[in-house]
Sequence to fold (552 residues):
Amino acid sequence: MTLKELVNSISKKEWRWVILLTIVLILLTNLPYLYAALNAPTGYFWDGIHAITPGDSLVYFSYLTQVKAEHWLLQDNYTSEPQSGGLLNLFWLFLGLIGKIFNLSPIITFHLARIFLIPLFIFVLYLLVSYFWAKVFWRKIAMIFLCFSSGIGAYFVDWFDKLFPATKSFAYKWLMDIWIPDSNIFLSLYQSPHFIFSLTLLILFFLLMILSLNYENLKYSFYAGLLGFFWFNFHPFYFPYVFFIMFIYLIFLVFKKRKYTLFINYFLALFLSLPFIIYHYYKIKTDFAIGGRAIQNVTRTPDFLFVSLGFGFLLVGAVLGIMVLIYKRKLLKDEKYFFIFAWLVAGFLLVYSPIFFQARFLQGLQIPMVFLTLIFLEWLGPILQQRCQKFFNLLKGNYVILGFFFLVFFGFSTFFNLVRDVYYYEKRLPYFYLPNEYLQATSWLQNNNQNRSPILASEFNGNLIPAFLDQQVFFAHSIETLNYNPKRQELADFFNDNYSAEQTVAFLQKYNLNYLFFSETDRQASRFKPEEKKYLEKVFSQGQLEIYKLKI
Fold:
């Protein structure tokens, strides 16, 4: 089979259904954001984020802001250390240039990119589904499960808050399907354009490599390698993921077909994918800022209890699907079934492997789970029809009942995530809405902080400032801020006014902090009163925001 033949196997009627599904997804993943923007209080604006990993979204805004300011190599603006280099990130560079050309804010650029990447993702996903499923009915069912299913973590939110409260000795691990955006497809579409594009490239990479190895077509390995070349520039984490899974599949095919030349296909893709892996390794070893951030960027997989609830009935369905394949003796006979099995098993091995970014490997694992669940349902259907005919007839064609069952067993966390954000936006919580003076204050700093000295601000403001201003802050983000814990204590001592005047000046000079960004929230939450400090001079005041400059 060729890629062209796969595309031609899909009818125009199917494509119309896929287009309708795409429109529904775009609407569902944008309605909460549209409501957020329209519900902004007078004198405020929506800052572009939502409840799931909001700090990470602000980092992405920072990348777009840097590119718009004509800095093509991205720096870490969430830490105060001087940086001479930067990191080439082709994905954010491309989006940032679009934002610059059309003079778009980082918020608009970010969410427009999400919208425009969703159709591309759905197209590629449907190609993968069509390769594994010939019947149109099961193709559609697969797409519905892939695009809307989640785990059952939302059912346990209140219980887990009481059973596993965070303490000094225990970091609370939240349920996966309501806080890890790349753990399921809907959250990826809802969260960030780079998650969408990464998942798109993952699926296309696998599809090309399957065609290359199954049909001994070297050109597909070449195309997969080119995809890997670009993909691993902005998401190098998935290099071991895809090549480990493909290696297991390769060994299976070599033993089955006795075709040792398939190693050439595999190593061609691997060789072409290597350049930016080497680049990242070099930057980590030679650039202290990039290396320091990499050391802090530890993404451990939650305990299996949290993961199993995060995948919910899909994990149960996957196990049952494997049992069906073993029972029908298809697991080792059909290459397609073995690839699904290899993807799931190898993926879980990596998820709990001794790699410090192991949680990254959760991306895409939902896909083989859905496929295996449908294999079980396809086997179960005729049995229900034969043995429980009344129940089967009740379900057949009754989309209201089927939709209700899907929501209860497979889609409740998806529903919960959307409703939670709408609730937060309805309450107009401060983290999601900023006073209009924010843009005036950051613009003032852009024009007056010519030496680009790091800006001192509270953690709340420190997370927000780099999203709209291409300058560094002293402290903000647990991964991006180097020496996070010592700086956190120093910042707490500063805002609690624990330092003497001499100690404060020494602290400011130690980190070259010439400007203090101070808001009404900071005034209410701390004991520090900048207007009373002789070493500070107020240089900006607008509404709730003030900027002070160090006199010395």
Summary: Strands lie at 44-46, 433-435, 455-456, 515-519, 536-542, 545-550. The chain has a mean pLDDT of 94. The radius of gyration is 26 Å.
